[in-house]
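Hi support team,

I've been running sequence recovery on a batch of backbones for a student project. Most finish fine, but this one hangs at about 90% for roughly twenty minutes before it completes. I'm not sure whether the input is malformed or the queue is just slow. I've pasted the structure tokens below so you can try to reproduce it. Let me know if you need the job ID as well.

Thanks,
M.K.
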């Protein structure tokens, strides 16, 4: 069954967020809630939720016009509308009586083939179905989304033996392809997978930090570093979840889990946590939590609570230099170090990994489901079993034995949990022996291709992989995937390799970000030595490389996700096509560091504006639009927004599920390769001095209105010089080489100025732009 219309009942934070992601998929969705007593507007709950979605930060909607797909209503008047709906998601309060009463109403109005699911995270499926007829059981399951639904990729699915397999598959396909979710099948057990392990981990970390009298900043930094989880670590994540939810979760676990479960050992509610909740410090949604923002002398200051006294003081960056030195020797060294933060991390890791291993097959049939759930639900870089392999299962088991700890059956043999067999990734099954890691049809992952294979080309910054069918994949793997001379060298070597042996190139990596741009540290080093020839060489090599990529005799498809900024965005603009993940944040941001795009970014973005079929007449409006976008360093909030900004063209495509990105890009590359010919060089007709006068007037106006700083004006004037075509006039067409020369000249002018030096130094030191 094709899912073409959805309903979400319950317009709270989760329900509204789920509805927003359905709308992001381009699917109409009813959002229904109760009618409050005395309400003048009967749809006020749903309408208010939609208004909040439009203001949400980070944005819940990929573009605001998606709100038109959200249809507000109420349960009393609008349930009859659900006869046309293919999937109803219940997201009402966690009250069994209310849910069961709603299900009885849905049975009366929904078609027999309509899917019905609950977003519950606390009530078992068996309890929800108890007493319900077979016709309900056959189409009912739990679909547990994670908050915020747009950004958290995990969807836990809990079905029952009577669930119609075809309907379950319909949900999986829709959630995978349209909502961008990684679907994990769970057993009907308390907390399912991610929260069963995740809440245990958070409790372990919180209690251990209190016992060891650590600061919250130390605990968060240590856990983030050793377990490779987001910088939120533990305490900031608890603030995000909401401290007031923790007592309810712990009480639910206390009642639901058997007496012998290890969760009970950490099921404690510290007095400090109770005190914070009582005083309204419930986390980010309240006055603050373990962290808060305070106003002092007119400035917002981040403060952290003292875990012993409960008092707040300005947050201090944790010194983790000792832990970094320990981890440099390998993650196993963390377990034998005397460093205080290493001892803390080792205790939390050991308890969490042991607990996770003890839960298979109770909570899931295999370790792959558990690792996937923790990666997608809690943003861990590696799941618990991947971490165990990194530590060494045999070593870990010996350590447990030496401490007289119970050994989970899954680990008893001391075997690796994952290994490569015949060039394919396999996992250790509960029954013993290895099974291929399951992948849904249409998913190709670079990490699978790397398994048991060597790159065709490689250096410190990039590698080239054969992904089959005559297509290769160029992967960046420097820190934050920054681009440097080694990146350029491998791109050039790749071009020659593909010319001789392959038919198409995909540029893709599985990092959090495609590329954050040029390596500014290397640029700053050249500036400090006034090595201007080296700076010019860096610019010319980048221009030469990107031009060679653009005019190569084979198609080049970029498959970006996350940030593609500065030089990373310039690379996208030189590709034949872009297959973007929905969460693409791209833009030409060089003005923020006192520079202008000079690897062809001005040239290519200007061309896109000039060729835009929706542009206004004459040469001035497209040049003005390019100037505005680049000078303001605009960055897309999604791939859809990138299309609005013309970083993506109408011919470029968007993939909702990150794990389908490589396969989709490969398919596009093969399509282009059938009758491929390189693009024709573009000739620019630009207004020259005429538009420069207009830009200078605009710059002065922005200065007077305090919308631009003094140095913003300097950078903008140099950008205006490039985009206007320099001293040309409209009767003298310019070549691409002319624009590239203007870019290089402008860059070299700015890079010698003290204002640019100050901006570069500030962003390298703080990670934040300087407004000088």
């Amino acid at each position: 069954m094709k899912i073409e219309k959805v309903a979400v009942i319950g317009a709270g934070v989760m329900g509204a967020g789920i509805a927003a992601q359905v709308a992001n998929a381009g699917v109409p969705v009813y959002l229904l809630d109760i009618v409050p007593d005395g309400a003048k507007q009967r749809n006020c709950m749903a309408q208010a939720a939609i208004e909040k979605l439009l203001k949400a930060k980070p944005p819940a909607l990929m573009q605001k016009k998606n709100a038109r797909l959200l249809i507000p209503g109420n349960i009393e008047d609008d349930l009859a509308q659900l006869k046309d709906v293919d999937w109803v998601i219940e997201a009402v309060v966690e009250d069994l009586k209310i849910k069961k009463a709603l299900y009885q109403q849905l049975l009366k109005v929904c078609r027999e083939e309509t899917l019905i699911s609950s977003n519950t995270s606390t009530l078992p499926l068996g309890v929800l179905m108890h007493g319900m007829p077979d016709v309900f059981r056959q189409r009912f399951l739990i679909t547990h989304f994670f908050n915020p639904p747009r950004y958290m990729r995990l969807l836990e699915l809990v079905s029952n033996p009577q669930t119609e397999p075809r309907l379950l598959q319909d949900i999986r396909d829709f959630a995978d392809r349209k909502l961008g979710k990684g679907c994990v099948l769970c057993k009907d057990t308390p907390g399912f997978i991610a929260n069963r392990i995740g809440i245990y981990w958070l409790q372990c970390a919180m209690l251990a930090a209190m016992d060891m009298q650590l600061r919250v900043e130390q605990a968060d930094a240590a856990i983030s570093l050793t377990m490779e989880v987001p910088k939120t670590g533990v305490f900031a994540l608890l603030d995000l979840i909401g401290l007031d939810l923790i007592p309810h979760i712990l009480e639910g676990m206390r009642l639901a889990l058997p007496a012998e479960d290890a969760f009970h050992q950490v099921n404690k509610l510290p007095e400090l946590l109770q005190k914070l909740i009582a005083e309204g410090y419930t986390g980010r949604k309240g006055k603050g939590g373990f962290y808060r923002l305070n106003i002092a002398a007119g400035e917002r200051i981040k403060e952290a609570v003292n875990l012993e006294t409960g008092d707040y003081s300005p947050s201090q960056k944790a010194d983790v230099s000792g832990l970094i030195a320990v981890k440099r020797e390998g993650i196993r060294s963390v377990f034998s170090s005397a460093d205080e933060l290493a001892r803390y991390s080792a205790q939390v890791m050991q308890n969490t990994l042991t607990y996770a291993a003890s839960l298979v097959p109770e909570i899931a049939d295999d370790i792959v489901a558990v690792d996937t759930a923790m990666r997608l639900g809690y943003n861990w870089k590696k799941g618990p079993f991947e971490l165990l392999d990194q530590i060494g299962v045999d070593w870990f088991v010996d350590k447990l034995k030496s401490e007289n700890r119970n050994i989970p059956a899954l680990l008893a043999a001391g075997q690796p949990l994952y290994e490569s067999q015949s060039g394919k990734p396999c996992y250790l099954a509960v029954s013993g022996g290895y099974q291929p890691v399951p992948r849904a049809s249409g998913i190709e992952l670079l990490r699978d291709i790397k398994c048991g294979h060597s790159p065709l080309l490689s250096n410190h910054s990039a590698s080239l992989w054969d992904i089959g069918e005559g297509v290769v994949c160029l992967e960046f793997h420097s820190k934050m995937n920054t681009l440097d001379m080694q990146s350029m060298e491998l791109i050039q070597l790749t071009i020659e390799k593909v010319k001789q042996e392959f038919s198409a190139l995909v540029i893709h990596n599985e990092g959090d970000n495609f590329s954050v741009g040029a390596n500014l540290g290397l640029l700053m080093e050249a500036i400090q030595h006034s090595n201007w020839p080296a700076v010019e060489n860096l610019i010319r090599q980048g221009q030469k490389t990107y031009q060679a990529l653009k005019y190569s005799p084979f198609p080049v498809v970029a498959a970006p996700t996350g940030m593609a900024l500065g030089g990373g965005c310039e690379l996208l603009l030189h590709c034949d096509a872009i297959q973007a993940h929905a969460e693409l944040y791209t833009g030409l941001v060089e003005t923020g560091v006192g520079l202008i795009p000079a690897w062809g970014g001005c040239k290519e973005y200007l061309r896109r504006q000039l060729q835009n079929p929706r542009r206004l007449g004459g040469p001035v409006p497209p040049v003005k639009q390019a100037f505005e976008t680049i000078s303001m360093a605009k960055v897309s909030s999604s791939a859809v927004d990138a299309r609005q900004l013309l970083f993506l063209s109408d011919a470029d495509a968007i993939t909702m599920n990150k794990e389908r990105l490589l396969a989709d890009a490969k398919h596009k590359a093969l399509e282009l390769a059938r009758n491929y010919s390189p693009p024709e060089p573009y000739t620019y007709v630009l207004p020259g001095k005429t538009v420069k006068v207009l830009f200078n007037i605009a710059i002065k106006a922005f200065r007077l209105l305090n919308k631009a700083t003094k140095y913003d004006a300097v950078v903008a004037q140099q950008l205006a010089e490039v985009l206007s075509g320099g001293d040309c006039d409209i009767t003298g067409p310019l070549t691409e080489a002319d624009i590239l020369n203007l870019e290089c000249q402008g860059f070299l002018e700015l890079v010698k100025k003290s204002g640019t030096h100050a901006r570069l130094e500030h962003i390298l030191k703080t990670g934040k732009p300087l407004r000088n």
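--
Follow-up from support: It reproduced on our side and the slowdown came from queue contention, not your input. The chain is about 45% helix and 15% strand. No action needed from you.
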